[in-house]
Design goal:
Blueprint lengths: L3 H29 L6 H17 L4 H22 L9 H23 L22 H23 L1 H11 L1 H6 L4 H27 L7 H14 L4 H23 L4 H15 L14
Helix pairs in contact: 1-5, 1-8, 1-9, 1-10, 2-3, 2-4, 2-8, 3-8, 5-6, 5-8, 6-8, 9-10, 9-11, 10-11
């Protein structure tokens, strides 16, 4: 019991970060019905930009919001310049492009920023309450995840632009017929996903340190969270992230050991796809042919 509660708390804290990146994956999937395998590398690249801004003298929150804006621009630009031209391409071709984008961003980041491990500051107090199960940064990261989920929910449910994006995701042809600018909505979806991913990167960098490899394992956990919650469900991504975080910590500590923790996510992905492909919150789609 002395170790169980700290492990549960640590799992919830890391799960909040997985949930943030899973939320970005869901945003792209709802827009294009494809999984962006380069989402983690986009987040890593933007986190390096934030680090450069902070090192050059910018206040943390100024660098934070500037990075979020840059990530939005990067995501929208990738959709407009690259993904839009592959709209009618085979699924395998799109997967290859996503993997190529992952490798390109990873290589460019290494070329520009180097492969040395760097520290990254946290915006939250370094000292927490004595005996607390979670540090101030962990609590702040979880709070940031819930804040992003609330913003996404309010945006899609209570704004005209959010309604247009939902309509575009459900039926782009009908949306275009009633005057919705589908191309713009898809670019906005990618932009929002880029911003959410950048926040996830800036929240995880103080924990794992900043280097070009930092998001590789996190992307696998985030993908497992998105699959578990339902790849098209934003609340499901958040719930799935917390579940994956807790399972990773408990199974890694008490069953398989720290060296095999990543296999927990992989086994979970396979199990969900076999037993419940729609996830916990996903909906089965029936198409009449």
């Amino acid at each position: 019991m002395n170790t169980l509660l700290p492990q549960l708390a640590a799992g919830l804290a890391t799960g909040g970060i997985y949930a943030s990146l899973a939320l970005a994956l869901v945003m792209v999937y709802r827009s294009t019905h494809h999984v962006n395998f380069a989402q983690g590398e986009m987040a890593m690249f933007c986190t390096f930009i934030a680090s450069l801004l902070i090192e050059s003298g910018w206040p943390y929150w100024a660098a934070f919001f500037a990075t979020v804006a840059l990530a939005f621009t990067l995501g929208a630009a990738i959709e407009s310049v690259l993904i839009r031209r592959l709209r009618h391409a085979p699924v395998l071709s799109i997967v290859v492009v996503f993997v190529a984008l992952l490798v390109i961003l990873h290589s460019i980041a290494g070329w520009l920023f180097g492969y040395a491990i760097r520290s990254f500051p946290s915006p939250f107090p370094q000292t927490g309450a004595a005996g607390a199960l979670l540090s101030a940064h962990q609590l702040g990261a979880v709070g940031m995840t819930f804040a992003m989920l609330l913003v996404v929910y309010l945006f899609f449910r209570h704004s005209p632009l959010g309604l247009q994006m939902r309509a575009t995701a459900e039926n782009p042809v009908s949306s275009r017929l009633v005057g919705v600018r589908v191309d713009r909505m898809l670019a906005l979806g990618w932009g929002f996903a880029g911003s959410i991913g950048a926040v996830a990167g800036m929240m995880i960098a103080p924990v794992v340190f900043l280097d070009v490899h930092m998001m590789s394992g996190v992307l696998v956990y985030a993908f497992a969270a998105a699959v578990l919650g339902g790849i098209g469900s934003a609340p499901g991504a958040v719930v799935g992230g917390f579940i994956v975080g807790v399972l990773e910590n408990l199974v890694g500590t008490y069953v398989v050991g720290a060296e095999l923790k990543l296999t927990v996510a992989l086994v979970l992905i396979i199990a969900v796809l076999v037993a419940r492909p729609n996830g916990l919150f996903g909906k089965a789609v029936v198409v009449r042919v």
